[in-house]
Amino acid sequence: MGERKIYPAIFTVSCAALVLEVSLTRLFSIYLSYHFAFMVLSIAMLGIGCAGTTLAVCPRLKNSSFIGAYAGLAGLSVLTGYLVSNNIAFDPIKLSWDSSQLFVVALYCCVLSLPFFFAGLLIASVFSLYSERAGRIYSADLLGAATGSVAALVLLHIASPEYAVLVSSGLCFVSALVVGGKKVRIGSAGLIAVLAVAIVASPNFLKIELSPYKNLSLALKFPGAKHLNTYYNSFSRVDTLESPAVR
Predict the structure, then answer these.
(1) pTM
(2) How are beta strands 226-232 and 237-242 bridged, if at all?
């Protein structure tokens, strides 16, 4: 892999990881409650830490021919993690008497840590394989992270969080197209095309599914209740409704 391809790959994957991480804080506050947003940092560190441990145990995975695959798998796992977590009904209150809810928490952590795991594999492998260029690689990593942090705020201000997740996945696929081999590039291009068709054909497939235990879900169950609109900005989501039960 040429030097020119290393830096764009690191930049885009690092940017994607930060877009996802910031977006997950919003998603968790919608799925569950804002109290659970702190879990995002733990989930990100879990994935990155597992990546470092995996490379320490299996050094042969630090192979330049795998870097494109890591980027593609990161993009795929972003979508998979979002879709799985979006369709899990979890009630935090039940944790006090229903031990099965712990399994749900563990499932959240596992599926959502996978993008950070593959991003960690890519970044750590590049640092190990091209250690003589560590300064420039680290610069690309930090620039990508800074760009991703700002981009996430912009995306959350102009659209709902699922589109920020979509951008995160797309950035990983772009990285795969830059550094991947022929099969990886074909696979990434195919997934981008499938995703584009799915969004056009069924734009609601990424729609956030509120937990049935959230206040809004419960309020909408009242006879005659009607959801009016949803508004997003960089720091909140506001839903308006009308109902005979409230003014």
Answers:
(1) 0.89
(2) antiparallel
